[in-house]
Design a protein that fits this description.
- Helix content is about 50%, strand content about 15%.
- It has 2 domains: about 5-140, Rossmann fold, CATH 3.40.50.2300; about 150-200, Orthogonal Bundle (Arc Repressor Mutant, subunit A).
- The radius of gyration is 18 Å and the shape is globular.
- The protein has helices at about 15-25, 40-50, 65-75, 90-100, 110-125, 130-145, 160-170, 175-185, 190-200, and strands spanning about 5-10, 30-35, 55, 60, 65, 80-85, 105, 130.
- It is an alpha/beta fold.
- This is Regulatory protein, LuxR:Response regulator receiver.
């Protein structure tokens, strides 16, 4: 019988933390923890051997950080989705992880629902960020994108659709997802999906 559960690899050097994650995920019938790694080197080897669907990756481990492991894993297995699960929420850590190819960034201590959404969303190809990280992305765009995109040539963001350009402009004006949804007559879920696509394309 084919196992259609999400196969998950946990990478963290703290045994109590890994045990806590296992206990939390045990109640999710669609997720199967297939392995645990305690270092970046172990993560690279286990990812190659086990070929998980999703990896929860810590950034700081004894042999360095999870950034190098993320890059190496995605170099050989680009289909694996990596979600960083870290206690660090500074801009440097967040954007370094995303630039390394992580599909999401969730803070340790996140609620169960948030973590499950990140795992499932990453498995579905979405870019997933916890609320605090999502706010940092908005600030990131606001600092780097003009308040209005109407004067920009179309080739400024060739990767984006017209709708995505429109939403990026509203993000730059510091509108919330709900405010954008109200203005464009869209659901907040649709706006979240567009924001995920925007960051993925501009990564």
């Amino acid at each position: 019988m084919e196992d259609d559960r999400i196969h998950l690899l946990i990478v963290d050097d703290s045994a109590p933390f890994r045990q806590g994650l296992r206990a939390m995920l045990r109640t999710a019938p669609d997720i199967a923890v297939i392995g645990e790694a305690t270092t970046g080197a172990e993560a690279i080897d286990m990812a190659d051997t086990l070929q998980p669907d999703v990896i929860l990756m810590d950034l700081q481990m004894p042999d360095g950080n999870g950034l190098l492991a993320t890059r190496r894993i995605l170099h050989t297995s680009p289909h694996i989705r990596i979600v960083v699960l870290s206690m660090f929420e500074d801009d440097d850590s967040v954007f370094a992880a995303l630039q390394a190819g992580a599909r999401g960034y969730v803070l340790k201590g996140a609620l169960k629902g948030e973590l499950l959404r990140a795992i499932r969303g990453a498995n579905n190809g979405e870019a997933i960020f916890g609320p605090a990280i999502a706010q940092r992305l908005v600030h990131y765009f606001a600092q780097r994108v003009p308040v209005t995109l109407s004067s920009l040539p179309r080739d400024a963001f060739p990767e984006l659709t017209e709708r995505e350009r429109e939403i990026l402009g509203l993000l730059a004006q510091r509108l919330t997802n709900q405010e954008i949804a109200d203005r464009l007559v869209l659901s907040t879920k649709t706006v979240r999906n567009h924001v995920s696509n925007i960051f993925t394309k501009l990564q």
